[in-house]
Amino acid sequence: MLALATSAGILLYLFLVFGVFFSKVFRIKPDPVNQLFLGLVAVNSISTIASLIVPVNIKLLAVILLTSIFLLLFIRKEIKAVMKSFIQDRTILFLFFPFIIYAFLISLGPPRNYDSGLYHIQTIKWIESYPVVPGLANLHSRFGFNSNVFTLFSLTSLSDLFGQEVFAVNFVIFSLLIYYFVKRLHSTFLRSSINNLFLFNLLIFISIITGTRFISSPDPDYIVINLIIYILSRLFESEEPLNEASIDWFFPLLIVTIYTITVKFTVLPLILAFLIIYIRLHIPFKKTIILAGLISVIILPWILRYIILTGWFIYPLSSIDLFNFDWKVPCTILENERLSIIGWARIPGEGWSKAAVMGIQEWVPIWWNNHTTIDHLKLIASFFFPVLTLALSFFRKAKLQFVQISALFTVIVCLAYWFIMAPDFRFGSGYVLMALLCPLIYLKFFVNTTWSPLFKPEYVMNIIVLLILLNFIIRNTGKGFVSGSVHRLLKPQEIEIPEGHSFTTYEKGGIKFSVPDGTNDQCFDICIPCTPYLNGNLELRNNSLEGGFRVRLKE
What's the predicted TM-score (pTM) here? Predict the structure, then answer.
């Protein structure tokens, strides 16, 4: 508990300080939650830039913490204002804390995502131990999956302090989202009782609450799915026409969207909504230059990490071939990794390699037969609802603002891209949810609850929260998430290694490498270097791990 609370507290503090500081520097006035998300982007960007030249660990964290203390001298007034906005409404805090406490207990459990044992934790260990390593993806192709958030996990893992990695990033993002949607529900209910927007936010709130399976894992997908939901919900609820004041919400949401793309590149189509809005918004040239500079600070270090890790501009895209470094991952490995992503999403299991090269008319029937009727209905409705909403807007049967129309069009594009490229519902769940809920932005209704004293806002909100929380507890208690949590007073449970799982040690260039025995390809959290396979053509570039790896091509 102490380790997780310390890591989460440090993250929240840094998000607050850097978010408020950059809001002041660039003279924008985002709401408090957007300010904290700006802080998330700022701190993650700093850690990614630093990872190019130094290990990202507790030493770098100490430097950033000292810097934040210096920044406090310039933003004390603004910090107090943000803190006051968070704590002034006790009802919201009362509704908010039960979910945070329970999610905290879940976060004390072991990482449960298979990919965390496969490469997430190992990637974080490499970032903690060395500056970005040239050709690391030659050791294990998954190390080339350069999710930007891994440097943030490394920065706040506190492994030097507690003897193991502590993963609090997902819990902190969960907390920010729960606070935002609790506040939205509360303010909507007080203003209009139960209406379409209340139901819209309630269903999103329930989705986030019930999606905590991997909150204890350093899982980029968890972050991406929830940020997609957050970004699109803000756009869908934007009922005011665009004007100069729109920059205060456009700026931070665009920055968060750019950041989300660096966490997972397949989110790229989401930027379409902001490009459309930008054209309509007519942002002054000076602010455009500033915005372009900030976007470059987020993107360029992330791309540099790709180039150094893999030798490719974006991994695993072989279509952009610009470099010829000696550590460059061979095309055969790159293409196999790309096809495995596509194939597993279409047809998981032994048939993935064939599915990856099938035409759409071949794999879609197989995919369809492998899914349930509920999945079929979700897919059809997720395409139908946004198209119907846009059509109604076009024929003036539904009154929508330009921002909402842009968001709807973007959702359709994102759904099509997801379905063609990687139609796994886990990857597309954010888009599917928002597509299913989009009718609620124009199907306006109102249920008056003032006729009875039992329907006072505080009573109704408390009952709703209690019912959701009870369901949340019932769904998770039996899964071992909470069992034993109270006994983990110092630190969370480490990732579970199956009984009998063993490793064989091989020596190459005077360095010992661990390789899992048998069919299990996970390295879990054992010391680096570890790889699921040891390529016989793998070479150390200069007889050290920091110098990187290359593959000797057969003549």
Answer: 0.93
